[in-house]
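Hi R.,

Here's the chain you asked about this morning:
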Amino acid sequence: MDRRDLLKSIAILTGGTLVGGDLLLSSFTNPDPKAVGILSLDQIKFLNELGETILPTTAKSKGARAANVGALINVITSDCYRKEEQITFMESLKQINAEVLKSLKKPFQSATKTERDKFLTVLDQEAYHYQQEKHVKDNDGRKSNKDYVPLPNHYFTGLKQLIIWAYFNSEIGATEALRFVSVPTRYDGCVPYHKGDRSWY
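And here is the predicted structure, written out as tokens:
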């Protein structure tokens, strides 16, 4: 799957709502990696490596590490997330780090590309199946109880969505993985499409 298809399928594939998504602004961002926020520099580097495994550098565009998605995520979670959303996000980081150490017996940054790919593939499948079951249970719960409280999303679901969002709203993601026109002119609702064309930002 190329990035164009991935971008269109974020909500479908991950099956959950991005935490704080209503507060995120789609804008060009080149955040200072030393900016003060809720994340440490090590956590920012970890998110960059996690993102690079999900959205690696290709012949056509640079990946999440080059886009510095960790720094952008730090800005967004520090400045735009409510306290409870920040807690949920930080718990997700703790959880995935615990799973990494349990599965790989070493930090994610020390793992090989093959180990990283295998770990995230398994985790992504686990999250996908959890979200499918959650959808069924939530629907049944709402039918039988008007005060039903939906189950929480799988911790990796929101984390993955945030990484993808950060990448495609970075300068690299918007101009290399997508097509960006800084000063759009007229609206044209019927543009010829050729297989493999990048989506518009």
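One quick note: Confidence is low (pLDDT under 50) at residues 21-31.

Cheers,
M.
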